[in-house]
C-alpha cells in the first residue's frame, strides 16, 4: 500500500475504475442530494468500450487471482478493511449527501461495513467428502470467473461490499455497477481497492440504465449479482439466459409481521414502527404488513400511533430519525400509493392523506388502519414510510394471509410464547424469518428470498457457494 496514494484520494472527484486506472468519460451525469434537490458531483457514464475493457482486464486478472491461496485473499481483504475504515468519516459524509440518510444512520452503515469484512475473514470454502468401499468422492467449490455486480441505491455501501467481499474471497474478479442515484460511495470504495488488489481484480463502471444490459449480455461475465426491483430482476434473468450466466437475484418483498396476543404492547409497538419505517421504509425487508391479534389491536395501534407521532423527519444533520426518500422516481411512486389510499377512503390512523410538497423528498410516516385484503397498500410494496395494519383472530387464517403474496423475502412473529411463535415462523414462506425482532439482515446468515423475491442467496457460509462452481472428484 502506498501512503502517498492514500493521502491523495479526493472525495469530490469521481471516475470509473478500469484496469487499475481512473477513467473519465465524455458523457457525465450527476447525482442529487434528496434532502435539498442540490446537484452533486459529475460522474462518468460508462460505454460499451468501458465494459469490454473492464472484462478483458478482469479475465486477465482472474487467471492469476484464482490461484492465490484463500489465506492470502483474506489478508488482502483485511488490508482493504483497514484502508476503508481509515476513510469511514469521508464515506459517511458522501453517503449522507447521495442517499439522504440522517447522520446517525449514515455513520452506522459506513461503519457496519467492518462486520462484513470481519465475518468473511473467518470463513473458508466448504469441502464435502463421501466415502464407501469403492470410492472417495470429494466436492470442492471453485470460483466462477468475472462477476458483474449491479447494486441498488438504498444501502449503497453495505450492498456493494456485500457482493465485493465474498466474490473476492472465493477467488473471483468483480466489476461493480453502482446505482446512478448513488454512485459516489461505490466509486470511491473501488478506487481505494486499487491500493490493495492487482489491476482488474476490483473494478467499477458508473452509468445510466444502458449500462446494466451491457453487463448482462457480455459473454465474458460468468455471473450477475443483482439487488433491486422484481421487474428489473426478471429482465436481468432473461438477459442472462442466452449465455447461461449464473444469477443471484435479491428482489423486493412484502414482509408480514404477525403479532400474538401475549406481547408486551408498550415494548413491541415502537419495534413494529421501526421495522416499518427504518430508512424511511426504503428497505427490501422492511415490515410492510402488520397483523395484530384482535384482542390487542386497538391498544397496539394506539401505541404505534403515539410513537410514530414522536418521529422527527428531516435532513441529514438535523438530528432526525427519518430522512427523505432517495430519489424523485421513488417519491412519486409513494405519493401515488398515498393518493390511491386516500381515494379509496381507507382510514389514516396517523399521517396525512396529502403529501406536503416542499424542498426535498420528504414524507411523514403513515399508518393505514385495516384496509381490505385486495387494497394496493396490502398487495404491493410501497418502499416508503407507509404501512397497513389489520386485526386477526384465527392462527391458520393469518398464516394464509401472511403467505398470500407473490413475494417471500422476510417475515416476523412477535410473542412471549416462544414455542407458538416459532411454530408460526416455520410456516411462513420467506427467506429470512425473525422472532421478536424486526427484520435485521446480518453477514452471518445467508440472505435471499422465496417466490418472486429472488433466486439464490448471498452472505453467510452458504452464501459463498453463490460465487462458486461445485466440482466433484471421484477416487476409485
UniProtKB/TrEMBL annotation:
Protein name per UniProt: aldehyde dehydrogenase (NAD(+))
GO molecular function: aldehyde dehydrogenase (NAD+) activity
Record-listed E.C. numbers: 1.2.1.3
Start and end residues of each Aldehyde dehydrogenase domain: 31-469
Catalytic-site annotation from UniProt: 250
Annotated organism of origin: Neohortaea acidophila
Keyword Signal among record annotations: no
Family (UniProt): Belongs to the aldehyde dehydrogenase family.
Record field: catalytic activity: an aldehyde + NAD(+) + H2O = a carboxylate + NADH + 2 H(+)
Sections of the chain in a coiled coil: none
The keyword Cytoplasm appears for this protein: no
Enzyme class: oxidoreductase
Amino acid at each position: 500500500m502506498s501512503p502517498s496514494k492514500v493521502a491523495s484520494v479526493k472525495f469530490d472527484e469521481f471516475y470509473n475504475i478500469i484496469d487499475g486506472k481512473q477513467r473519465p468519460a465524455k458523457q457525465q451525469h450527476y447525482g442529487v442530494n434528496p434532502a435539498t434537490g442540490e446537484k452533486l458531483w459529475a460522474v462518468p457514464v460508462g460505454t460499451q468500450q468501458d465494459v469490454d475493457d473492464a472484462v478483458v482486464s478482469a479475465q486477465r486478472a482472474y487467471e492469476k487471482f484464482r490461484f492465490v491461496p484463500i489465506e492470502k485473499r483474506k489478508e488482502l481483504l483485511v488490508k482493504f478493511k483497514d484502508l476503508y475504515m481509515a476513510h469511514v468519516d469521508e464515506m459517511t459524509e458522501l453517503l449522507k449527501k447521495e442517499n439522504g440518510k440522517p447522520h446517525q444512520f449514515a455513520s452506522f452503515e459506513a461503519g457496519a461495513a467492518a462486520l462484513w469484512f470481519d465475518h468473511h475473514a473467518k470463513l473458508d470454502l466448504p469441502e464435502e467428502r463421501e466415502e464407501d468401499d469403492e470410492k472417495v468422492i470429494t466436492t470442492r467449490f471453485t470460483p466462477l470467473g468475472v462477476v458483474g455486480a449491479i447494486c441498488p441505491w438504498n444501502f449503497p455501501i453495505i450492498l456493494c461490499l456485500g457482493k465485493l467481499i465474498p466474490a473476492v474471497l472465493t477467488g473471483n474478479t468483480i466489476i461493480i455497477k453502482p446505482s446512478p442515484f448513488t454512485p459516489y460511495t461505490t466509486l470511491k470504495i473501488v478506487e481505494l481497492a486499487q491500493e490493495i488488489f492487482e489491476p482488474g481484480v476490483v473494478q467499477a463502471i458508473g452509468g445510466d440504465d444502458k449500462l446494466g444490459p451491457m453487463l448482462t449480455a457480455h459473454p465474458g461475465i460468468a455471473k450477475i449479482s443483482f439487488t433491486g426491483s422484481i421487474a428489473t430482476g426478471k429482465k436481468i434473468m432473461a438477459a442472462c439466459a442466452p449465455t447461461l450466466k449464473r444469477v443471484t437475484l435479491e428482489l423486493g418483498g412484502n414482509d408480514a409481521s404477525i403479532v400474538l396476543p401475549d406481547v408486551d404492547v408498550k415494548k413491541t409497538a415502537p419495534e413494529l414502527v421501526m421495522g416499518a419505517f427504518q430508512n424511511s421504509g426504503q428497505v427490501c425487508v422492511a415490515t410492510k404488513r402488520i397483523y395484530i391479534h384482535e384482542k390487542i389491536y386497538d391498544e397496539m395501534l394506539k401505541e404505534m400511533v403515539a410513537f410514530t407521532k414522536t418521529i422527527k423527519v428531516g435532513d441529514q444533520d438535523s438530528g432526525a430519525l427519518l430522512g427523505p426518500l432517495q430519489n424523485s422516481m421513488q417519491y412519486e411512486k409513494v405519493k401515488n400509493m398515498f393518493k390511491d389510499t386516500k381515494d379509496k377512503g381507507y382510514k389514516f390512523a396517523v399521517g396525512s392523506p396529502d403529501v406536503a410538497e416542499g424542498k426535498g423528498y420528504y414524507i411523514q410516516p403513515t399508518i393505514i388502519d385495516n384496509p381490505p385484503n385486495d387494497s394496493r397498500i396490502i398487495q404491493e410494496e410501497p418502499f416508503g414510510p407507509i404501512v397497513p395494519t389489520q386485526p386477526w383472530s384465527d392462527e391458520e387464517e393469518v398464516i394464509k394471509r401472511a403467505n398470500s403474496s407473490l413475494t417471500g423475502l422476510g417475515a416476523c412473529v412477535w410473542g412471549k410464547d416462544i414455542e407458538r411463535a416459532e411454530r408460526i415462523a416455520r410456516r411462513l414462506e420467506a427467506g429470512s424469518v425473525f422472532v421478536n425482532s424486526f427484520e435485521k439482515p446480518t453477514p452471518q446468515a445467508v440472505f435471499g428470498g422465496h417466490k418472486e423475491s429472488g433466486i439464490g442467496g448471498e452472505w453467510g457460509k452458504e452464501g459463498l457457494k453463490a460465487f462458486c462452481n461445485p466440482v466433484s472428484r471421484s477416487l476409485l
